[in-house]
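re: ur question from yesterday

yeah so i grabbed the chain u mentioned. its 291 aa long if i counted rite. heres the sequnce exactly as i have it in my notes:
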Amino acid sequence: MRLGHPPPPCPGYTTPDVLLSSTTFPVTSSPAPLQPSQCGERLPPIIQSVRFRADFPHLRCAVTPSRSGATARQVLGNYQGVAMVDGYAAYQTATKPGADGPASCSLVFCWAHVRRKFVEAEQVAPACAQVLSLIGQLYAIEAGLPDPHALEGAQQTAALAYRLLVRREQSVPLVAAIREWALAQRALPGSGLRKALEYMLALWSGLTVFLSNPWVPLDNNLVERQLRDLVLGRKNHYGSKSLRGTEVAALFYSLIETARLGGEDPGRYLLRAALAAIDNPGTVTLPSSLD
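ran it thru and got these structure tokens back, copy pasting raw so excuse formatting
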């Protein structure tokens, strides 16, 4: 991204070295409907992603035509690392052979989404308390591990080695216990427990990658939390009046959340950008992390 140029469309934005050098690429999406008065125009969802690099945290929101596998393939682009996603089938479709070829990344899945399924099922299936306790223990272990994105050089290398060691010694037995519990359960087809079990077991290989890859987080909560502003806006002002309005909103979501990720107050950033545009019309000022 360069001064004086708006962010490129989503497909082209997935190929710079910033993304290709990322260690994890969390992706999520949320619908943002148009106001009822615009009944002739249907708004695609906004797909939101966070690209991590120790010195370059930033976020991209983009309006896409659908939540299909083809769209997910465009979003993932030529990224060759690990993509953290939920269980939505489009991402899995995108990594399978197709007309455009499979996306070159590998998928990992989010334990928070798994936990949510069992929390919902626990209301009618008290046995879920056991697996929720085991998942809670996984999170307790993660809470005590260093964040490698906040470190560099030898400290980062040591942090990664420590994360891997602790996960192998403490998390592996817990994950094995979770699977053993799941396989021992019996639930009626269509029940909340059955759906939770099928959801988890279908994604099992991607849920366990974190045990062998210290870069992989346990969940996608960081990017999920950054959907909060979008969801609040959708509820408070019922979406935009036009597709163009939503594209502009997506641009502002990107810049504001990137400012936050870079440690810059969004209000101060917007003031800085506005004053720069007044002094020099046409100037585009990006958050400090992108300067």
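noticed a couple things. Confidence is low (pLDDT under 50) at residues 1-22. also Strands lie at 27-30, 46-51, 58-63, 82-85, 106-109.
anyway ttyl
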